[in-house]
Amino acid sequence: MPEWQTEVFDFNMGDYEDLTEFCRNGNFKYIGISVRNIDDTNYYEQISFMAHYHKIMQIIRENSNAVVLMGGSGFSIYPGILFRELQPDWGIHGEGEENICKLITALEQGADPHVIDGLVYRKPDGSIGINEHKQHISSLTLHVEQQIAHFYFEKSGMLNIQTKRGCPYHCIYCSYPIIEGHNVRLLDPVSVVENIIELKETKGIDYLFFTDSVFNIHKEYNRELASLLIQKKAGIKWGAFFTPHNLSFEDLSLYRDAGLKHIEWGTDSLSDSQLERLNKSFRFSHIKEQSLNASKLGIFYAHFLLLGGYGETDQSLDETFEHSKELGRTVFFPFVGMRIYPRTLFYDIAVKKGIISEEDTLLQPTYYLSKEITMETLQERAHATGQKWIFQGDESPELMERFRAKKKRGPLWEYLMY
């Protein structure tokens, strides 16, 4: 890789005025914008972030002559639409680490960039060209910038680290395979553990969250990673997204010994008929078995559910509420309605059934909510189970801030279980 000097602007650490000064003083030749979320993914609020991204582009254009590049997970879901909306000079959809280097190198050397994998560009006739993303990075390494890592750890009580990319599952609503592909690629476990130990020794970071789309999609890799954490006496606590599929009690026990403190189950529903409609690879019996296994091992766990999605009925909802009583001491985080994303399996279903048209950009939050559920009593029925249900908007920012002020680490929902 060429020796390039880079600087990072993070909106968690600055505002529009800071960005203005950053652009004016930086004398940058290239500015890259990572578009992560398009909206708040909250059915009750449905707040779009597009005005924010338009403001960013306005500030950059008015205060810099840099070539603007765009990428990120949100951009990768809507590459053509966002390119047209926000008007960057070039874009990269999907993994961008290698391709953005190829793009800048081509621009610097006067070579033709239009053959680059995943490139998004403007054609001479004004239309948008989108190159297919054929190649994925097969050898992934990790190095975390210590100062930024320390900031996020202090603010959130955990540091996010990814150990693998790609998702082999085919849930009908999910955009992960669009962003990362279906083929699972693994980060070097030795490099991951070395980074973890370095961050703990230099910045005191001792609680991590592995942000893989699903952590337990590669048994051999996870066993090696967990064994290394134990052998190297890393002494950290961690959590991750798990599926009840492809998991054994022995593996959970190993992960616990390696520091696993909490699990966020991507459960979606506790009704077998609804799980089948969502194209999930497990059923309620697996959810119950693995939840109780985690309980036996002293691992905290929460269930993330999708209520009122495709095909949901009051009967399947009531089945979910009834089954929730069988999962021990846990917390349920329900999302209501199903956000429709382009190029997903549900997008095809929604077009076929006339829920949306092929002309819909879906850039503004667009939700499917089943007409077969009684929305007025949904939350009442959930709370009647006696379990802990936290609907979007129920969280108390003041309570969370008090926990963080007391240096509470990990996901704060652990403390809501008592």
Topology:
Elements: H1 16-26, E1 30-34, H2 50-63, E2 67-71, H3 73-77, H4 79-86, E3 90-92, H5 97-109, E4 119-122, E5 128-130, H6 146-156, E6 159-161, E7 164-165, H7 176-180, E8 185-186, H8 189-203, E9 207-210, H9 219-231, E10 237-242, H10 249-257, E11 260-268, H11 272-277, H12 284-296, E12 300-307, H13 314-324, E13 331-336, E14 338-339, H14 345-352, E15 367-368, H15 378-383, E16 388-389, H16 397-405
Parallel strand pairs: 1-2, 2-3, 6-9, 9-10, 10-11, 11-12, 12-13, 13-16
Antiparallel strand pairs: 3-4, 4-5, 7-8, 14-15
Strand content: 15-25%
Query: How many domains in all?
Result: 2
Shape: globular
The CATH topology of the largest domain turns out to be TIM Barrel
| CA distance, first residue to last residue | 51 Å
- Total strand count, please? 16
Mind describing the biggest β-sheet? 7 strands, parallel
User: What portion of residues is helical?
Assistant: 25-40%
Computed CA radius of gyration, to the nearest angstrom: 22 Å
Structure description:
There is one protein chain. By secondary structure, the protein is of the alpha/beta class. The chain has two domains: 16-130, no CATH class; 146-417, Aldolase class I (TIM Barrel, Alpha-Beta Barrel), CATH 3.20.20. 38% of the residues lie in helices and 16% in strands. It has 16 helices and 16 strands. It has helices at 16-26, 50-63, 73-77, 79-86, 97-109, 146-156, 176-180, 189-203, 219-231, 249-257, 272-277, 284-296, 314-324, 345-352, 378-383, 397-405; strands at residues 30-34, 67-71, 90-92, 119-122, 128-130, 159-161, 164-165, 185-186, 207-210, 237-242, 260-268, 300-307, 331-336, 338-339, 367-368, 388-389. The protein has a seven-stranded parallel sheet with strand order 6-9-10-11-12-13-16. The chain is globular. The relative contact order is 0.10. The model has no long low-confidence stretch (mean pLDDT 91).
